[in-house]
């Protein structure tokens, strides 16, 4: 058995199903009566391609057929599979370094070599740079370029300063890395693959294998791969079968693609057209030493073939730029895309719905297979969820990162809790995680009950941080409720629960000391919270392997100096591990990423996400090697990925039925159609039709047949239910939005503050009231002690540092004004403080009228001045005249009727003490001023002596109408005086407001 005179290189056009056509041809050529195909070998690009070709053999062959051995050679990480398949090859090749070990070690080298603005590079950033360094180094090795060649480049002085620094840093890191490899007796994975492939090619030239060898679908243009394919093509029973090599492209267009030799010696060659879908195949043929006219067409076809015209149209659509002028003169049959249609959805949600409908429709035909190919993983997940409504399980073969799996999100939650010192949001995210305390339903429900109580406690601005800060907050809540004579049972139960939980979380405090300390803390706390569920299943095993590998490689990894680096460090490592679904999805439905879709086939293929930036993905800049350096070294241009994405699309368009899908708008805003789709539309013109039917079905599937508009809510509770106490601050809500009053006071519904909320004006107002209350109770309203009291209380609140920095100076300035104004009024007018922060209540018109008095001063003549503190602008006089913002008048009513203990007299003055900037007067622009709701110009101005009566009149009307009367609690009765929307969702405001409601 020797070599053939002419290399055997074939191509299967795009309009034929590659795997089925390959299987049919191999059965014709190599099947033997006794051994079948088992004596041969098929070299494939990756394990996914091996699975596709195996399935094609199963579909076409008789039962019991023995299949050839499938050996992946195109993937960078081929492990030991090639050496095992080819016997002694690789026995003398050193083992490859583990990828994770390489990432950690390179990150450590980068961290030690590199500083940004004299600051150390963080561990997550070092990992990111290590990934990009490894990618650049692999390309050098694959292209057989030594890193030492960088020193010999004559153009270093022509580069910008940052690229010169990056080039030197790359050379330094590469040298350190090579020394590290030598010290541990390992080589790079790319180097090992080169040596294995070279060894196989040399062995086969000397001693050909006994059976046939077919290299199918391998398109990697690496020199070592090209050498092996050349050796296979020269074997007597060897064949190389390429997917979708365009042998019909005119010679001048083929030549335009490149690669180009320099026209004159010493000149830089003309740039190649690496974005063309045929470039990598042309480069592969050049490196194999095969001319395009030597490549033969594979004679057999598959089961899912399109019309041959499809291949011609695809070739014309992807013509080089200089040749696109021919589109004007192409006859209709040369631009025919029969069986291909375009689906342009208004948004990504509609796109996913329409795709799911198309797949569901295809499954109605017996035996029909449907596939979605897309690089957009969010689109893939949406389609899979939509298909579940019909009971169709569609597995996304691209998988999902371990960082998005439950065990991964638990580790990220632990890392975030450690990094943020158990801040409320991070802590609650951890405690609510579905794996925590989930041994059985009863345990989980009891756990969530305690977590919900903690959730209620942590709402509002953050208090003191850390585990101890939460314990202090629980104690403070118990003390406050005991002082107000409220039930403290649930808070005491929470205290006992927290005293047991806090020690279990405590190891996370050590997480920022080192990598080993972080891993140990994560392991201990995760097992304490979730038990062995962390390590169960496929995801748990992957996490356990990663943890073991990290512990083994921690000595070589980057320094983890601070806990703040831990979440990003963990996420970077977890995101690199893809968890692919186990088999068991629908046998006729597949969802692929672009890598998984290569060589796959189906009767209906939907190419989704055809927007620029998604398909193709825009190449990311190389932080290490400048484009000029990459070109001088002969490395692949960053834009070559665009050509590979174009070739993927061309191969997928060989299916009998193809849908090209995009969304005009996605989560990032308006989308721009992919350059590939625009080319196809420009070339095909009216021959490429739109699929409006699928979009119409997508729009209609969830649309109700009839829409019954909501009516404005007008609940009518019983007389007993209406008899609730009326707070002086609730009168505005009762009059302007009775439904909101009904929801809050009668139904008892309250809006919860956000967890760990940023301090708001309401928080500032609460802080002022707390300061003044303690000032009155503990300092006897001594103005000299007010500033000191404010500093002490604000310091104990543990507010967010940024908010403290922005607001505390303003608050203290306003507090100082209160003290100064209090002293001025005392000295000049004989006005003294009679009450601060006291509760008052009276029985009025059959209901309890109550409120909290901010401050009441007694004047020298014995009359009282009602003071209300405001952190912002006080209500206007017109609002008061209309019967709103009457808190001061109602307070006067309560005081005059003896509702405040120990206080009596006539209310003769009403003042707002605003802590905002004074709008006019001597204090214009300064913090703190006094305003009053009474007086003013015009006949409708309210005199001081009439203000209490004015307030009493309006509260009397409100009580008679709603609380003792039977009027409905109509929603949004006077929306101009109802600025709050706490109950808008409950009243279904958007469904009736402004749409004819009376």
Describe the protein in words.
This protein is α/β, with parallel strands linked by helices and 998 residues long. Helices cover 45% and strands 12% of the residues. A six-stranded parallel sheet has the order 3-2-6-7-1-8. Helix 5 (123-142) runs parallel beside helix 7 (189-206). It starts with 8 loop residues before the first strand and ends in a 35-residue tail after the last helix. Mean pLDDT is 85; it is low at 76-81.
What Rg, in angstroms, do the CA atoms define? 38 Å
- Largest beta sheet, briefly? 6 strands, parallel
The global form is elongated
- Approximate helicity band: 40-55%
In spatial order, strands of the major sheet run 3-2-6-7-1-8
State the oligomer: single chain
Q: Determine the N-to-C terminus distance.
A: 95 Å
User: Could you name the ranges where pLDDT drops below 50 across 5 or more consecutive residues?
Assistant: 76-81
What is the typical, i.e. mean, pLDDT? 85
Strand portion = 5-15%
- The count of DSSP E runs of length 2 or more, i.e. the number of strands, is 26
- The secondary structure category is alpha/beta
Q: How many H/I helices?
A: 35
Concise description?
With about 1000 residues, the protein is an alpha/beta fold. About 45% of the residues lie in helices and about 10% in strands.
Strand and helix map with partners:
Elements: E1 9-12, H1 18-30, E2 41-44, H2 47-60, E3 69-72, H3 81-85, H4 99-113, E4 115-116, E5 119-120, H5 123-142, H6 161-184, H7 189-206, E6 213-216, H8 223-234, E7 238-243, H9 251-257, H10 279-288, E8 296-297, H11 308-317, E9 340-345, H12 348-362, E10 370-373, H13 377-388, E11 400-401, H14 406-419, H15 424-431, H16 441-457, E12 460-461, H17 466-483, H18 489-505, H19 515-530, H20 537-553, H21 566-575, E13 578-579, E14 589-592, H22 594-597, E15 604-607, H23 627-633, H24 640-652, E16 657-663, E17 665-666, E18 669-670, H25 675-684, E19 689-690, H26 692-701, H27 719-722, E20 726-727, H28 731-736, H29 738-746, E21 755-757, H30 761-779, H31 786-796, H32 801-829, E22 832-844, E23 847-858, E24 864-870, H33 877-881, H34 887-896, E25 907-917, E26 927-931, H35 944-963
Parallel strand pairs: 1-7, 1-8, 2-3, 2-6, 6-7, 9-16, 9-19, 10-14, 10-15, 12-21, 15-16, 20-23, 24-25
Antiparallel strand pairs: 4-5, 11-13, 17-18, 22-23, 23-24, 25-26
């Amino acid at each position: 058995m020797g070599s053939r005179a002419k290399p055997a290189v074939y191509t299967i056009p795009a309009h034929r199903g590659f795997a089925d056509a390959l299987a049919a041809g191999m059965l014709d050529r190599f099947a033997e009566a006794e051994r079948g195909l088992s004596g041969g070998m098929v070299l494939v690009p990756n394990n996914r391609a091996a699975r596709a070709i195996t399935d094609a053999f199963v579909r076409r062959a008789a039962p019991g057929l023995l299949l050839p051995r499938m050996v992946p050679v195109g993937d960078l990480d081929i492990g030991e599979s090639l050496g095992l398949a080819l016997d002694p090859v690789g026995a003398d090749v050193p083992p490859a370094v583990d990828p994770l070990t390489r990432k950690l070690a390179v990150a450590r080298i980068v961290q030690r070599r590199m500083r940004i603005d004299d600051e150390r590079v963080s561990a997550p950033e070092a990992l990111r740079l290590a990934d990009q360094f490894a990618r650049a180094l692999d390309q050098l090795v694959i292209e057989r370029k030594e890193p030492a060649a960088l020193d010999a480049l004559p153009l270093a002085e022509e580069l910008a300063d940052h690229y010169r620094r990056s080039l030197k840093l790359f050379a330094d890191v590469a040298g350190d890395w090579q020394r590290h490899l030598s010290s541990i007796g390992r080589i790079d994975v790319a180097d090992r693959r080169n040596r294995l492939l070279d060894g196989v090619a040399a062995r086969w030239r000397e001693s050909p294998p006994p059976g046939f060898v077919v290299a199918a679908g391998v398109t990697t243009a690496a020199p070592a791969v090209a050498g092996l394919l050349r050796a296979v093509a020269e074997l007597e029973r060897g064949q190389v079968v390429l997917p979708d090599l365009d042998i019909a492209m005119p010679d001048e267009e083929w030549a335009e693609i490149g690669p180009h030799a320099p026209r004159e010696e010493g000149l830089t060659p003309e740039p190649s057209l690496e974005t063309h879908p045929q470039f990598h195949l042309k480069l592969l043929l050049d490196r194999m030493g095969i001319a395009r006219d030597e490549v033969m067409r594979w004679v057999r076809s598959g089961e899912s073939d399109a019309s041959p015209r499809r291949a011609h149209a695809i070739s014309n659509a992807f013509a080089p730029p200089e040749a696109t002028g021919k589109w004007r003169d192409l006859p209709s049959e040369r631009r025919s895309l029969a069986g291909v249609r375009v689906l342009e959805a208004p948004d990504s949600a509609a796109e996913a719905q329409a795709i799911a409908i198309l797949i569901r429709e295809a499954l109605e035909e017996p035996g029909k297979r449907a596939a979605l190919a897309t690089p957009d993983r969010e689109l893939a997940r949406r389609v899979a969820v939509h298909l579940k409504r019909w009971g169709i399980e569609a597995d996304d073969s691209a998988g999902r990162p371990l960082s998005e799996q439950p065990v991964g999100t638990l580790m990220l939650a632990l890392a975030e809790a450690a990094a943020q010192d158990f801040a409320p949001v991070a802590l609650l995210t951890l405690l609510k995680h579905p794996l925590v305390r989930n041994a059985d339903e009863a345990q989980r429900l009891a756990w969530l009950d305690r977590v919900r109580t903690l959730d209620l406690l942590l709402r509002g601005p953050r208090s003191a941080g850390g585990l101890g800060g939460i314990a202090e907050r629980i104690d403070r809540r118990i003390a406050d409720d005991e002082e107000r004579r409220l039930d403290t049972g649930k808070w005491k139960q929470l205290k006992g629960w927290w005293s047991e939980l806090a020690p279990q979380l405590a190891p996370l405090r050590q997480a920022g000391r080192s990598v080993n300390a972080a891993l140990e803390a994560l392991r201990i706390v995760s097992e304490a919270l979730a038990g062995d569920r962390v390590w169960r299943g496929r995801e748990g095993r992957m996490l356990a392997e990663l943890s073991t590998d990290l512990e083994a490689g921690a000595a070589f990894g980057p320094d983890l100096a601070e806990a703040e680096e831990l979440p990003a460090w963990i996420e970077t490592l977890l995101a690199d591990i893809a968890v692919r679904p186990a088999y068991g999805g629908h046998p006729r439905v597949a969802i692929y990423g672009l890598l998984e879709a290569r060589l796959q086939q189906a009767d209906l293929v939907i190419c989704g996400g055809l927007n620029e930036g998604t398909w193709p993905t825009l190449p990311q800049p190389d932080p290490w090697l400048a484009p000029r350096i990459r070109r001088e070294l002969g490395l692949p241009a960053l834009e070559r990925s665009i050509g590979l994405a174009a070739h993927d699309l061309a191969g997928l368009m060989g299916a009998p039925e193809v849908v090209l899908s995009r969304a005009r708008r996605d989560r990032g805003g308006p989308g721009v159609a992919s350059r590939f789709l625009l080319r196809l539309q420009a070339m095909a013109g009216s021959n490429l039709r739109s699929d409006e039917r699928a979009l119409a079905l997508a729009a209609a599937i969830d649309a109700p047949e009839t829409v019954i508009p909501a009516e404005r809510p007008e609940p009518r509770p019983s007389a007993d239910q209406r008899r609730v106490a009326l707070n002086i601050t609730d009168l505005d809500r009762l009059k302007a939005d009775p439904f909101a009053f009904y929801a809050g006071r009668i139904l008892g519904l309250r809006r919860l503050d956000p967890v760990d909320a940023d301090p708001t004006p309401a928080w500032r107002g609460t802080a002022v009231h707390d300061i003044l209350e303690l000032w009155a109770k503990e300092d006897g309203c001594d103005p000299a002690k007010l500033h000191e009291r404010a500093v002490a209380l604000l310091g104990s609140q543990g507010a967010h540092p940024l908010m403290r920095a922005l607001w505390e100076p303003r608050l203290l300035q306003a507090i100082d004004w209160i003290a100064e104004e209090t002293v001025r009024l005392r000295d000049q007018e004989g006005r003294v403080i009679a009450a601060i922060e006291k509760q008052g209540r009276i029985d009025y018109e059959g209901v309890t009228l109550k409120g909290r008095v901010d401050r009441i001063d007694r004047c020298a003549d014995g009359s009282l001045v009602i003071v209300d503190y405001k952190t912002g602008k006080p209500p206007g006089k017109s609002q008061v005249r209309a019967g709103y913002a009457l808190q001061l008048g109602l307070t006067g009513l309560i005081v005059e009727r003896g509702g405040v203990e120990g206080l009596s007299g006539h209310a003769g003055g009403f003042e707002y003490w605003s802590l905002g900037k004074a709008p006019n007067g001597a204090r214009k622009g300064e913090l703190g001023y006094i305003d009053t709701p009474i007086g003013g110009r015009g006949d409708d101005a309210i005199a001081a002596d009439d203000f209490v009566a004015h307030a009493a009149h309006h509260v009397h009307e409100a009580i008679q109408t709603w609380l003792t009367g039977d009027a409905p609690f109509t929603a949004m009765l006077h929306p101009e005086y109802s600025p709050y929307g706490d109950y808008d969702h409950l009243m279904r405001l958007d469904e009736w407001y402004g749409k004819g409601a009376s």
